[in-house]
Amino acid sequence: MAFPHRLDAPELPDFSMLKRLARDQLIYLLEQLPGRKDLFIEADLMSPLDRIANVSILKQHEVDKLYKVENKPALSSSEQLCFLVRPRIKNMRYIANLVNADKTAGRTRKYKVIFSPQKFYACEMVLEEEGIYGDVSCDEWAFSLLPLDVDLLSMELPEFFRDYFLEGDQRWINTVAQALHLLSTLYGPFPNCYGIGRCAKMSYELWKKLEDEEDSESKGRRPEIGHIFLLDRDMDFVTALCSQVVYEGLVDDTFRIKCGSVDFGPEVTSSDKSLKVLLNAEDKVFSEIRNEHFSNVFGFLSQKARNLQAQYDRRRGMDIKQMKNFVSQELKGLKQEHRLLSLRRCKLKYKSQFTVLIPALGRLRSENHSRHYLKKPKNKNKNRDISWPLSYAPALFFLPSGLIPKDYRSLKTQYLQSYGPEHLLTFSNLRRAGLLTEQAPGDTLTAMESKVSKLVTDKAAGKITDAFSSLAKRSNFRAISKKLNLIPRVDGEYDLKVPRDMAYVFSGAYVPLSCRIIEQVLERRSWQGLDEVVRLLNCIEFAFTDITKEDKASSESLRLILVVFLGGCTFSEISALRFLGREKGYRFIFLTTAITNSARLMEAMSEVKA
Amino acid sequence: MNRTKGDEEEYWNSSKFKAFTFDDEDDELSQLKESKRAVNSLRDFVDDDDDDDLERVSWTGEPVGSISWSIKETAGSSGSTHEGREQLKSRNSFSYAQLPKPTSTYSLSSFFKGRTRPGSFQSLSDALSDTPAKSYAPELGRPKGEYRDYSNDWSIADTARRLRKGKVCSLERFRSLQDKLQLLEEAVSMHDGNVITAVLIFLKRTLSKEILFRELEVRQVALRHLIHFLKEIGDQKLLLDLFRFLDRTEELALSHYREHLNIQDPEKRKEFLKTCIGLPFSAEDCAHIQDHYTLLERQIIIEGTFSSPVNLKKTFKIPDKQYVLTALAARAKLRAWQDIDALFTTKNWLGYTKKRAPIGFHRVVEILHKNSAPVQILQEYVNLVEDVDTKLNLATKFKCHDVVIDTCRDLKDRQQLLAYRSKVDKGSAEEEKIDTLLSSSQIRWKN
After folding, report:
1. What angle do CA A279, A280, A281 make, to 5 degrees?
2. What angle, 0 to 180 degrees and rounded to 10, lies between the N-to-C axes of helices B414-421 and B401-411?
3. How many Å apart are CA B246 and CA A225, to the nearest integer?
4. Quick check: B193 and A169 CB within 8 A?
5. How many angstroms separate the first and last alpha carbons of chain B?
6. Residue A192 and residue A227: Cα distance in Å, rounded?
7. Inter-chain contact A382–B89, Cβ cutoff 8 Å?
8. What residues form DSSP beta bridges with A195?
9. CB-based contact (8 Å) between B59 and chain A?
10. What is the pLDDT of residues B172-225, one digit of tens each?
């Protein structure tokens, strides 16, 4: 139980270097504004900043007071103001208001704007328009790779998803290319490169251009990481929209893991204070359960508690200090988990109703899950629980297959009535991004679906068949899932305690498409034989391989794979690939523009700001 | 896959732009760098790594290394000796204090001009030998015409590359439509959205909107960038013009409608929504927009006085279940138990009242529990659950002792009642009630 790493697993490169680099660069930038200054930080940058520096470091570099960039007048009395922001228009307007107010008041101060990870011309244009270009100095803090864990690097750019996949804005591609360039400078060249997706290809091309332009010192270096795989989020929306059932994914869905840590409110900690817990490989208990299917976690934890109890009993003879140590370290963590779990128990029940989205598409298993699920999209005023949070309800029906127009309209109407008519903008966005498709008339059930629907001997069978047909029509996804065997055949129960494939991250019902693609390509070391899949993904032009004959690469490095998710990845995908790594003796390193899940994807589509 | 240097060379050699083949120059420059490094005496003021920064032109085209700049530079106290790598990295900074120090006669254009092959090139030290160590008024002696020379002569590829690197770079020399479009295409082929937007900002400023729209219509990537840019800076007028030009009527309508989100005042919002009603939305959205308007209109009329949810329900054709769920949760939050009672009470034609819940009473109970209704209230509704097993489960779950006990009695299930006895508090009224039942001779227990 709890997956240990294989003994022969390759060592991971040391990514803490990235933190030091970012910190040093920030310090350097702060020193560019000598003397005491107040620092205004954008809310979204606070957590990442917390992970690499702390207040005392800032204080050491003459930062006096810290403010949050928000829509309030600044009360700072400092003579020097420094802004640490994402390159966003609204930040520019905020700064402009502040500077112009000072000007009106006849006050002169020094202003410095530090853009992270880079500045955009549109921002400068606003500064110019507002008449403060030249009054403020601008700098860039190229902090685009935050190691959240030993094997997880995040760019912490959730807006990447909306900007690129909804708006078609390629502004972050350079940021990605720069980040990859930095990685190859630090960890050597990547002898084997693969990718799929339009954005992946563009990022790759720009990255290679950067490498060509600068005679990068990495060229002669020994590669530390043997493979890199770039993948666009829109290759696989389905996986990202599924509710998660591996422990870490579940915690993310329920509590939102933010920058590698989670805030437990008073209702979880059962005290007045909320508690911030860092979730990573350093937390022993957590790292043992993070990749587990949640159904195993209860048992595992109580077993663990019993073991501890036994240990505890045995150690009666410990002196006070040892005992204290023991209690404070081992038990504390455990208690937290327990508390966390007890709270989650009720939530789980509620969520498991629509846990497994996928079986509905391929195959019906006689589980309540799928049946429950199937009722939802079709519910026709039946059992519709409008207390669903905004984010979950759409996830149910924004399937790649498309809904029949009648269902689509009725659901949309109910949704708008429940959440506000302005969400028709959300619907329009979902369509534009390809997250929501309405099916064309005239589609019929496939043989497989008819067969499956016959298996259902429930009295609701008729209804299910209807819903089923409305869900699973006209989808490339279906063909892909067949081609790649995403819905594994299971004889008898799928033993979640002993996972046999990556499908365990979705209760044995579905292998994440994204991970399967990666697995297949790595096996072949190319896209050969996957032509049909590539065609179905509409990616004939955007699937690429670039293999350099590299004798310098050690066999160890060739088992390290950097997977780059453009547009975000989920903890389920991470767990699935960690599993694959253990099976095959690889080790995966993840680079994502941000951690995502169904709720975040949906929110990114909303025009209505909560 | 990559555009190789060869490609670029071919482009430049075949291009009608009489460019000064940059790649060659690059080589030349790198040689320059070499020799530069050799000239130790120049270290102080020669920027070790970067020749590009010799001339600075602000993004709008003004040369930065000018007098006013120099004055600031002299006045400024900021460090002139520590020129670390880091500083170079942040060279796109507009802080004047950080600009590398130019030297008087040392201009790139002088290297380029009239020079053909690297062979004929003199060493840098020659070119610079007459340079005074530090001169902060470098532009004074230079003829004005030279500015154009060096600031405008970046080739299209180089301009795009400089933009990508965040370096200052004038776009003013791109005056012909063809030049502008080539620059745009170069930016698009480089994939960097920031550069595409930069070029678009320039095109928006220097082209009439008809021409701009016409050219972008056939350049979808750039078009998407312009649309996003206009959305972001809130240039609603131009955005709507653009959609109108492109004949994207639905997007036009949605974009217009979107604006209401920025209007706080309810009366103004309503008036605004009224203007949305006739717009070319899709058929289904038309109805939603109409609803939205009617809703706001009503909200304003109501203004704190009594509003009839039933009426709203009728107007907006809200299905029974949805209505009940909403009303139930809302009333429960206000702890208005009587209203809830009324919600489920129906009268038949004889005047008898009956309790009916379109969503099923088991769900009513769940919702009430979620809103922490007291046991007495819960009990009332648990009792209304038809299915006995469900009722028993719910009653046990929510500790509605009376319901459990009564149900067991009705089921004549002595065993279950006995089992339940252990779950109630010792000496409580419930325990007493169970004991009375268990000892009653009137009931014929089934077990």
Report:
1. 145
2. 160
3. 47
4. yes
5. 82
6. 5
7. no
8. A230, A544
9. yes
10. 889 999 999 999 999 999 999 999 999 999 999 999 999 999 999 999 999 999
Q: Is the pLDDT of residue A63 over 60?
A: yes
Q: What angle do CA A94, A98, A101 make, to 5 degrees?
A: 135
Whether B320 sits inside 8 A of A381 (CB atoms) is yes
Q: How far is CA A496 from the centre of its chain?
A: 24
Cα–Cα separations (whole angstroms), residue A33 to A38, A69, B335? 11, 19, 58
CA distance B76 to chain A (A): 12
What are residue B399's phi and psi, to 5 degrees?
A: 55, 45
- The Cα A456–Cα A465 span in angstroms is 9
| Cα A48 to Cα A155: distance, rounded to the nearest angstrom | 9
Q: B163: nearest CA in chain A?
A: A121
Q: For A346, which residue in chain B has the nearest alpha carbon? A: B370
* Amino acid (1-letter code) at residue B446: K
Query: For residue range B365-415, what is the model confidence (pLDDT) as tens digits?
Result: 888 888 888 888 888 888 888 888 888 888 888 888 888 888 888 888 888
Query: Tokens 């007890």 — which residue?
Result: A342
Give the pLDDT mean for B243-253: 93
Is residue A43 less than 8 Å (CB to CB) from chain B? no
- Judge contact between A67 and A43, C-beta under 8 A: no
pLDDT value for B362: 86
Query: Phi/psi of residue A201, each to 5°?
Result: -65, -45
Of B93, B193, B316, the CB nearest to A139: B93
Judged by CB atoms closer than 8 Å, whether chains meet at A125 and B295 is answered as no
- Complex ipTM: 0.84
Q: What are the tokens at A493?
A: 């129960």
Percent of chain B with pLDDT over 70: 62
Segment A555-559 long-range contacts (CB within 8 Å, at least 24 positions apart): A556/A10, A556/A11, A557/A10, A557/A188, A557/A222, A557/A223, A557/A224, A557/A225, A557/A226, A558/A191, A558/A192, A558/A226, A558/A227, A559/A9, A559/A10, A559/A226, A559/A585, A559/A586, A559/A587
pLDDT at B152 (0 to 100): 54
Segment A205-229 shows an average pLDDT of 84
Q: Which helix (H) or strand (E) holds B10?
A: helix B5-14
8 Å CB contact of A414 and B3? no
State how far the Cα of A173 lies from the Cα of B315, in Å rounded to an integer: 49
Provide, for chain B, the percentages of residues in helix, strand and coil under a 3-state DSSP scheme, each rounded to the nearest 5. Answer: 60, 0, 35
What is the count of residue pairs from A and B with beta carbons less than 8 Å apart? 167
pTM exceeds 0.80, yes or no: no
Give the C-alpha separation, A53 to A58, whole Å: 8
The mean pLDDT of chain A is 77
Cα B90 off chain centre by: 26
Q: How far apart are CA B331 and CA B338, in angstroms?
A: 9
Sequential DSSP letters for A39-85: EEEEHHHHHHHHHH--HHHHHHTTEEEEEEE-SS------SEEEEEE
Residue-level pLDDT at A420:
80
- pLDDT, greater one: B78 or A501: A501
For chain A, say whether B191 makes contact (Cβ under 8 Å).
yes
**Residue A82 and residue A40 in contact, taking contact as beta carbons nearer than 8 Å:** yes
